[in-house]
Amino acid sequence: MGGTTSTRRVTFEADENENITVVKGIRLSENVIDRMKESSPSGSKSQRYSGAYGASVSDEELKRRVAEELALEQAKKESEDQKRLKQAKELDRERAAANEQLTRAILRERISSEEERAKAKHLSSEFYKVTTEQYQKAAEEVEAKFKRYESHPVCADLQAKILQCYRENTHQTLKCSSLATQYMHCVNHAKQSMLEKGG
Question: CB of 97 within 8 A of CB of 50?
């Protein structure tokens, strides 16, 4: 871009003093016109224009200088555009690299977090298992120490008969004495057999 020459068609307009001040719709500053006039060699075959300092410039020379100035301005603008484009691309690369690093960091954090969660869940289940086993063992030990004795009514059939007899003979309880004696023998026999089993 910087090394190529561009061919452009340039249109000039002269003002009322025959000075060229407009090039293809762009108004030239006095500074640009003065620079073009200063670098021109004197003595040309075509029409001359006199500037503020008395230097004369031919039409072709002025056109050439204006074209050179425009080409320089265009090259400068293209160079600045290239710099901006290069900076924008560099910023895009840096932004993409930063986004990539951020994405990797987030992914590492998620993986680490999930690993920690899985580890905590595993430890929790292990703790629950051990605690349950310890509880079960302690419960079995307590139960073995303090075993509940199951008691079944002894001579339940005789007991029911005596109760029925007392209800039927509320004023003559001696009629139930034979049943009471049988019940007492049954209870004593049950006590004796329990003592023999335990001893």
Answer: no
3-state SS, residue 149: coil
CB 103 within 8 A of CB 44: no
User: At 41, is the secondary structure helix, strand, or coil?
Assistant: coil
Per residue in 133-176, pLDDT (tens digit) is: 999 999 888 888 887 667 777 888 888 999 999 999 889 888 88
3-state SS of the chain: helix, strand, coil percent to 5?
A: 70, 10, 25
Phi and psi for 65 in degrees, rounded to 5?
-65, -45
Residue 27 pairs in a beta bridge with: 22
pTM of the model as a whole: 0.31
Q: What is the DSSP letter of 17?
A: T
What is residue 51's three-state secondary structure?
coil
Residues 6+ apart with CB under 8 A from 48: 56, 57, 58, 59
DSSP 3-state assignment of 190?
helix
Cα 73–Cα 75–Cα 76 angle in degrees, nearest 5: 65
